[in-house]
Amino acid sequence: MRSSTRRRALPGAPRRRTVLVSAVAAAAALTLTACGADDGGKPVADVSGGTAAKPIVKLDNPMEKPDLVLTDTNGKKYDLLEKTKGHPTLIYFGYTNCPDVCPLSMANIAVAVKQLPKAEQDDLRVVFVTSDPERDTSAALKKWLGGINADFTGLTGDFDTIQAGARSVNIGIEKPVKKKNGDVVSTHGAQVLMASPKDDRIHWLGMQEATSDDYTKAIPKIIKGQNP
Asked: Which sites bind Cu cation (predicted)?
């Protein structure tokens, strides 16, 4: 599976530690969410750090989108910067076996997207980058996203490449760990990166607490490059 990145990864992010994205929005710290199943089969969502004061947070310092070239759900090379250039873009790092946070976040976005006019749906790019590429093959991503919104793009590839891309936008992800009971736990940031079509930079974060109503209100403005 071919994947590459064109810039050097930022220094390693510390484990399970809050990463501040803005001096003003200090309460909107990026958190790491451990998703898996406990011995009783119940979902595990161990969230560290604080929560956002608002469900959609504006960054004081916009970020460049992650420079990633990975493999999409059709098994083809996908250059994220090239494919999303000039388009309003939402990016989320997660994995298909997540029992709670990932499917809920993507479903909330899907509900909001379905309410957009067709032209705006076609213009919007929603990209799901797996944090568990060993299990999330192109076929697995295609099947999973097909149950949410078949127009969403799923990306897989080399874990180190994906991790470096996530760290470049202050999203922490860690290699999935298999527990003694066979459960697999994947730890990843739970924020939705939201980029403006005007300058292709990430200006906003959809926090874990954001609902479908929050995205329904925010996405039409983001499509126009406006603050939600």
From this structure: 98, 102, 188
